[in-house]
Amino acid sequence: FMLGSAFLQPAIRMTLPILAESISNSKPDPIYITLDAEGVLYVNQSKIAFNQFVAAFNALYHPGSDQNVVVRADQEVTYQRFMEVVFILKKQGVEDIGLEHDVKAR
C-alpha cells in the first residue's frame, strides 16, 4: 500500500536515483477471450481465425506472470467449442481461467 500527497513535504531532502525506465508493480492487463453466438473467436477486441488463436494469444500472454485470462462465451456457443478454447489455454500454461457471466435480475 502506497500513499502519496502533494501537500506533504519530505522531512529529508534527497536526490533520488534515475533509472532508464520505471519499475511497475501493477498487474498486466487481463486478456479477454470471447466467443460470440456464432462461435467467432476474439482475443481482446481482435477477431481471430480459430487456427490463429494460439499465436494471437501467445503474443499477449506472459507465462509465470499473474496476468488474468478471462473467457466470455455467448450462451449459444456449443460446449464443445468452449472446451476447445479452455483446453488450448491450459496447454499454453494458463493455470487460472476466469469465466465472465451476467447476474440474473431478482
Key traits:
alpha/beta; 18% helix; 5-stranded mixed sheet
Brief account:
The protein has 106 residues and is α/β, with parallel strands linked by helices. The chain has helices at 53-58, 79-91, and strands at 31-35, 41-43, 46-48, 69-73, 97-99.
Task: Explain what this protein looks like in three dimensions.
The protein has helices spanning 53-58, 79-91, and strands spanning 31-35, 41-43, 46-48, 69-73, 97-99. The protein is α/β, with parallel strands linked by helices. The protein has a 5-stranded mixed sheet. A hairpin with a 5-residue loop joins strand 1 (31-35) and strand 2. The two termini are 37 Å apart.
The chain-level mean pLDDT equals 83
Number of strands: 5
Proportion of beta-strand residues: 15-25%
- End-to-end separation in angstroms reads 37 Å
Number of helices: 2
Please describe the biggest sheet, giving its number of strands, its sense, and whether it closes into a barrel.
Answer: 5 strands, mixed
Mind telling me the C-alpha Rg? 20 Å
